[in-house]
């Protein structure tokens, strides 16, 4: 999928993935790829600035995790992030229904 | 003392990549250190996973770095909010503004139909035209006196120019719709800006309308039509702005 198509929805995708539980960046991208059957295949490193921005907006929290020996930053969704996720899911459903009704059922 | 376990992938390319990343990343040192530390863990995890899939050590690292993305790409995604991020919202604001001008053109046309050209674009009492200009104007409205012909001509211009602006506004909105989304502006900022913009315009246009009303409403329609559209838009965007501000996630989330 073109990365510019994906970039507008990246926040929603990251929040959705992290609503399934705390994860570090590599696990987030792996979950994203698996749950989309490989459709969402963006440059993996670009999720870090997005994760940092979401944390800056208090939608995520993070901590250093060294339990597996390698030092990784683990991210978790905050309660504000869950509110934002609900809202953005609603917005996305409205948008996708609108697109579907324009491009038609045969598309 | 036991010998170190040999790595299943080639670590040196990762070191070189991280060196380049440190230099390229924008932002304060702490933010750079954090991104590099995360990149390092990510690249080692990814290379390990590629090696576990059966790739040769060199290939495993190469694949992990390719999947991570170029240093330039990561640096671009990490850059702070820039002017380019304002292009899409600017297209939205310009498009909405021009469409409002177009709507005021349609309203001006209705006012011309209801109350005549003089109400929309009539000159102030005492205005005169020289003979040459009157002849020119009479070509647009044969059989009418000079001031009536001028009003009819100018009312036509008001409607045509504004409707043209409206069509241009639709093109801006199309560009806004098709342009890729970049960073979002702070929550409620776009409707807030539009509410302020239309509110200010409505006040100015109300003043112009009141001013024209002193001249027996001659030409007041062009200001009144624009003022009514601006006031309606200000209220609509004010309501939208308030709704966005009241959303639970608005305090820290973004929109636009």
Please tell me about this protein's structure.
The complex is a heterodimer of chains A (107) and B (256). Chain A is an alpha+beta fold and 107 residues long. Chain A has 5 helices and 3 strands. Helices cover 56% and strands 13% of the residues of chain A. Chain A has a 3-stranded antiparallel sheet. Chain A is globular. In chain A, 34% of the residues are buried. By secondary structure, chain B is mainly alpha-helical. Chain B has 10 helices and 2 strands. In chain B, strands 1-2 form a two-stranded antiparallel ribbon. Chain B is elongated, with a radius of gyration of 31 Å. Chains A and B meet through α1, α4 and α5 of A and α2 and α4 of B.
Please work out how many helical segments of chain A DSSP would assign: 5
**Structural class per helix/strand content of chain B?**
mainly alpha
Helix residue percentage of chain A: 55-70%
| Secondary structure: number of strands of chain B | 2
- Molecular shape of chain B: elongated
Largest interface: chains, residues each: A-B, 27 and 29 residues
The mean pLDDT of chain A is: 86
What's the pLDDT, averaged over the residues of chain B? 87
> Radius of gyration of chain A in whole Å, from Cα?
15 Å
Spatial separation of the terminal alpha carbons of chain B: 60 Å
Strand runs of chain A, count: 3
Low-pLDDT ranges of chain A: none
Globally, the shape of chain A reads globular
Characterize the quaternary organization of these chains. Answer: heterodimer
- Structural category of chain A: alpha+beta
Measured by DSSP, the beta-strand proportion of chain A falls in 5-15%
- How would you sum up the major sheet of chain B? 2 strands, antiparallel
Number of helices of chain B: 10
Q: In percent, how much strand structure appears in the residues of chain B?
A: under 5%
């Amino acid at each position: 999928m073109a990365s510019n198509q994906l970039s507008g929805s990246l926040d929603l995708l990251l929040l959705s993935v992290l609503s399934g539980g705390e994860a570090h960046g590599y696990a987030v991208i792996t979950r994203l790829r698996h749950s989309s059957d490989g459709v969402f295949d963006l440059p993996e490193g670009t999720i870090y600035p997005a994760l940092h921005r979401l944390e800056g907006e208090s939608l995520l929290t993070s901590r250093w995790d060294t339990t597996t020996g390698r030092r990784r930053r683990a991210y978790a969704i905050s309660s504000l992030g869950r509110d934002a996720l609900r809202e953005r899911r609603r917005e996305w459903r409205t948008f996708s229904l609108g697109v579907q009704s324009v491009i038609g059922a045969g598309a | 003392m036991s010998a170190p376990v040999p790595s299943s992938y080639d670590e040196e390319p990762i070191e070189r990549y991280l060196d380049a990343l440190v230099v390229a990343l924008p932002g304060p040192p702490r933010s750079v250190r954090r991104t590099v530390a995360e990149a390092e863990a990510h690249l080692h995890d990814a290379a390990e996973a590629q090696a576990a899939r059966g790739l040769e050590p060199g290939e495993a690292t190469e694949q992990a770095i390719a999947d991570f993305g170029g240093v330039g790409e990561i640096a671009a995604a990490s850059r702070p909010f820039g002017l380019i991020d304002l292009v899409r919202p600017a297209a939205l604001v310009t498009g909405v503004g021009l469409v409002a001008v177009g709507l005021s053109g349609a309203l001006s046309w209705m006012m011309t139909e209801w109350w005549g050209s003089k109400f929309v674009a009539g000159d102030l009492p005492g205005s005169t035209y020289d003979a040459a200009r009157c002849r020119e104007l009479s070509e647009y409205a044969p059989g009418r006196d000079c001031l009536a012909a001028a009003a009819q001509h100018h009312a036509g211009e008001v409607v045509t120019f504004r409707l043209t602006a409206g069509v241009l506004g639709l093109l801006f909105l199309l560009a806004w719709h098709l342009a890729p989304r970049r960073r979002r502006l702070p929550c409620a900022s776009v409707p807030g800006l539009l509410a302020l913009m239309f509110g200010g315009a409505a006040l100015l246009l109300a003043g112009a309308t009141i001013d024209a009303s002193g001249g027996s409403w001659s030409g007041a329609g062009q200001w009144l039509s624009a003022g009514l559209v601006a006031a309606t838009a200000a209220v609509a965007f004010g309501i939208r702005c308030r709704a966005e501000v009241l959303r639970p996630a608005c305090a820290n989330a973004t929109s636009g």
